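User: Could you walk me through two proteins back to back? I'd like the raw sequence and the structure tokens for each, with a short line separating them so I can tell where one ends and the next begins.

Assistant: Of course. Protein one, sequence then structure:
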Amino acid sequence: MYIIVGLGNPGQEYAHTRHNTGRMTQQYISEHVPKLSAKFVFLDTFMNKSGQGIAKVVKSKGAAKKLIVIHDDLDLPLGTLKISYNRGSGGHKGLESIIRALKTKEFVRIRIGIGPTSPRLRGASKKADVEKHILGKFKKSEMDILKKVFKRAQGAVETIVTHGLSNAMTEFNSL
């Protein structure tokens, strides 16, 4: 059985921030998916400590292969969805925590683009600019785009669980 986790920070102050895109996507899928042979695990840890929560439910490297982590990705344009497997963290602190805790990179990721549309922030190297962007709340126009991605992520999860990772990557990474 797959375990599905969406990364984010707990609490209302972070509820609709870009960094909570994974958690928001997971919530959407859990509410809209029909019966699925998967378990949704909602973490109560902060993003940078995600590995601690996941290690409580994923007990082995073998079990990690059935883990689907949904998370924000600053390097992908807003509205983009990419499925990957067995990759590094890409500098994402939540993923770094998971890789450390599980001692493996062999798990599925559904990466949701939150990349800035502003030319000023594209390629931003200042840590403060990046933090301000990822901890910022979505504008209404951005949420409209994100809602479409939620539906695609739902389809991706259903395909992974029912038809396998390879089929899902072929279908959803080519869009």
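----
Protein two, same layout:
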Amino acid sequence: MPRKGAIVLVAFPFTDLSGEKLRPALVVGVSRDHLVTLFITSRLTGERRWHVPIAASTESGLVVASFVRCDKVASFDIRIVAGEIGRAGGLVVRAVDVKLRKLLRL
């Protein structure tokens, strides 16, 4: 089972729910059978204050420099995760935690 900080491949829904696309996502929470994830994209779009940069590396499993979108959260049943491709470094995970706390006003 993936843990917090894992980068997994999931069929992430479009925001208008018109479809979905297999893409990387950062795991930020884990329960017995669900993962809470954040969308990862290589495109710098949307409200940039909620973006955390993440490098392409063998550790992350990403092939291009990307951004974790802290404002794009989705929960998935563990059974639909296509696989784990890597892990985010500690600095990225901590930066995401800070932005999530601000966004969610925790």
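The mean pLDDT is 94.

Let me know if you want the two compared in more detail.
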